[in-house]
Design a protein that fits this description.
alpha+beta, two-stranded antiparallel ribbon, elongated
Length: 63
C-alpha cells in the first residue's frame, strides 16, 4: 500500500491531468487512504471532476 505522501502526489498528478480544473485551486491532504480536497472552484462540475479524478487513483479509500 502507498504511504500518505505517495498517494498525495498521485492525487495531485491526477487533478493536474483533468483539463477543466486548475490544480493550483485544489489542496490535497491524505491520511490512511482517505483524501480531503480543499479549495474553491467556480462550478459544481469542476468539483465533481476533481472528486472523480481522485477516486480513480489506486489506493484512495474515500474522498
Amino acid at each position: 500500500m502507498k504511504n500518505n505522501l505517495e498517494l498525495q502526489e498521485d492525487v495531485q498528478n491526477a487533478i493536474k491531468w483533468e483539463p477543466s480544473i486548475n490544480s493550483s485551486e485544489i489542496g490535497v491532504a491524505v491520511r490512511d487512504g482517505v483524501v480531503t480536497l480543499s479549495g474553491t472552484v467556480d462550478s459544481y462540475s469542476k468539483k465533481l471532476a476533481a472528486e472523480r479524478a481522485t477516486k480513480n487513483v489506486i489506493g484512495v479509500r474515500a474522498v
